[in-house]
Every structure is written in C-alpha cells, then in structure tokens.
Amino acid sequence: MLPRITLITPSFQQAPFLEECLTSVHSQGYPNLEHFVVDGGSTDG
C-alpha cells in the first residue's frame, strides 16, 4: 500500500490560477492523495 500524501496549497488572491493548480496536482495520478486548498481571505473569487 502506498503512503498517504497530504498536499496543502495556500492561496491568497489566486483565483485565476487555482484551476490549473488543481488540474496539475490531480493529473499526477497518485492514488492515495489528500489535497487541501486553504484560502487566506481572498476577495477575488
């Protein structure tokens, strides 16, 4: 069994780039991935 990898992506005012980031992370195909995006109070989305 592969170990669980937890990825935390901090974000502030980065709405235009989030889709590309998420697509890139999830396209890696690692089966035991946990991904959190943490927003710091953005006003852009």
Highlighted features:
single chain; about 45 residues
Structural description of this entry:
This protein is of the alpha+beta class. The chain has one helix spanning 15-26; strands at 5-11, 33-39. The longest helix is centred in the middle third of the chain and has 12 residues, at 15-26.
Q: What are the SSEs and their pairings?
A:
Blueprint: E1 5-11, H1 15-26, E2 33-39
Parallel strand pairs: 1-2
What's the β-strand tally?
2
Categorize the overall geometry.
elongated
Identify the strand order in the major beta sheet: 1-2
- What is the CA-atom radius of gyration, in angstroms? 12 Å
Order of helices and strands: EHE
Low-confidence stretches: none
- Determine the fraction of residues in helical runs and give it as a percent range: 25-40%
* Residue-averaged pLDDT: 95
SS element count, helices: 1
Short description:
The protein has one helix and two strands; from the N terminus they run βαβ. The protein is α+β, with helices and mostly antiparallel strands.
